Amino acid sequence: MAAERLALLQRSWSLVADQYHRTFSPLFFPWIQDTLSVLTANSPPPGVIAVPCCGPGQELALVAAAFPQHRVVGLDLAEGMVRLAQQLVEGQGLGDRVEVRVGDASQLDSLAPLAAVLSVFGLQQMPQPAEVLANWTGCLAPGGVLAVCYWPAAVEESGPWQRLFQLTAGKPQADWKGEIPSAALRQGAQLVLDCRPAHEMAWPSVEAFWEGMTRGGPWHSRRLLYGDQHMEELRRQFMQAYPDLAAPLRHSPHGRLICLRRHAASL
Ligand SMILES: C[S@@+](CC[C@H](N)C(=O)[O-])C[C@H]1O[C@@H](n2cnc3c(N)ncnc32)[C@H](O)[C@@H]1O
C-alpha cells in the first residue's frame, strides 16, 4: 500500500511539474521565506543542509544564497521535479555546491549527520509524517537545526481548500496530530518554534483554482487514481458553493511551521 502510494505520488508530481512550478511556486513563496528566515535566525552549524521534497527547487537557490559556506542537497521523489530543480541550480551557477537527487526522502540516514533540514510542503505527503519528522531530526548533527513547514489537516476555517478537503477527506492519519512534534523531540531535540503562518493566495478565478489544484497540484494524484469522470462529479459538488466560475478567489490558508534544534551533546 505504501509502495503504491509512493509510486502514485512519483508519477503525479512528475506529470504536473511544469504546471506546478508556474502556478504554485509563486503562491508558496511566502511560506518558503518564512521557513528560511527561521532557519537563518537559528544559525545551524557548518555542514550539509538537506532539503527534502524540494520540488522544482525554488528553495534550493534561496538556501544556497543564505548559507554560502554550506553544501545543499535537495531530494524529491519525482523525476519531473528534479529535472526542473537541476535546471534552476545549473542556471544560477550553483552546481558546485548544490546537488539534487531523485528519491524517497522519508529517511535521511544516508546524509547524516546534517547541519540542517529545511522542507516546505512535503511532510503532509508522507504516509507517516510524525515518524518522518523524527527521522529527519535524528539525522541532525549535535546543534543541528530543522525548519519544516507543512499543510496540517485543516488549513483554513472556510474557503476553497477546506471545501476540497471536506469533499475528499479520508480517515485522518493516526499520528497526524498528537505525535508532531513529540516523536521528533524524543530524538533529543528542543522545540524552538511551532506556529501557523498564513498568507493570502489570489486566484484569477474559481475555475483557475480548480484547474490548478486538480491538474497541476495536490489533487492531481486523485485524478490519476480515480479518473476524469470521478473528478467531474467532484467538480460539480465543489462548484455548488461557487456559482460564478469566473469570479476571482482569495483565501488565506495557514501552514504549520516547526523549528527544532538537536541537543548539542547527546543526553
Ligand atoms: C507540494 S510539493 C512542494 C514542493 C516545494 N517544496 C515547494 O514548496 O514548492 C510536494 C513535493 O513533495 C514531493 N514528495 C512527496 N513525497 C515524497 C517523498 N516520499 N520523498 C521525496 N519527495 C516527496 C513531491 O514529488 C513534490 O515535489
Write a brief caption for the model.
By secondary structure, this protein is an alpha/beta fold. It has helices at residues 2-41, 58-66, 79-91, 129-138, 160-168, 182-185, 206-215, 220-226, 228-239; strands spanning 48-52, 71-76, 98-102, 114-120, 140-150, 189-195, 201-203, 249-251, 256-262.
Strand and helix map with partners:
Blueprint: H1 2-41, E1 48-52, H2 58-66, E2 71-76, H3 79-91, E3 98-102, E4 114-120, H4 129-138, E5 140-150, H5 160-168, H6 182-185, E6 189-195, E7 201-203, H7 206-215, H8 220-226, H9 228-239, E8 249-251, E9 256-262
Parallel strand pairs: 1-2, 1-4, 2-3, 4-5
Antiparallel strand pairs: 5-9, 6-9, 7-8
Helix pairs in contact: 1-2, 1-3, 1-8, 8-9
The structure holds S-adenosylmethionine.
The site of S-adenosylmethionine has 25 residues, from α1, α2 and β2.
Give your account of this protein's structure.
This protein has 267 residues and is an alpha/beta fold. It has one domain (2-156, 176-200, 254-262): Rossmann fold (3-Layer(aba) Sandwich), CATH 3.40.50. Helix content is 43%, strand content 20%. It has nine helices and nine strands. Strands 3-2-1-4-5-9-6 form a seven-stranded mixed sheet. It has a two-stranded antiparallel sheet with strand order 7-8. Helix 3 (79-91) links the parallel strand 2 (71-76) and strand 3. Helix 1 (2-41) packs parallel to helix 2, helix 1 packs parallel to helix 3 and helix 8 packs across helix 9. The longest helix is centred in the first third of the chain and has 40 residues, at 2-41. It is globular, with a radius of gyration of 18 Å. S-adenosylmethionine binds next to helix 1, helix 2 and strand 2. Residues 53-144 form the Methyltransferase domain. This is Methyltransferase domain-containing protein. It comes from Chlorella vulgaris (Green alga). InterPro entries: Methyltransf_25, SAM-dependent_MTases_sf.
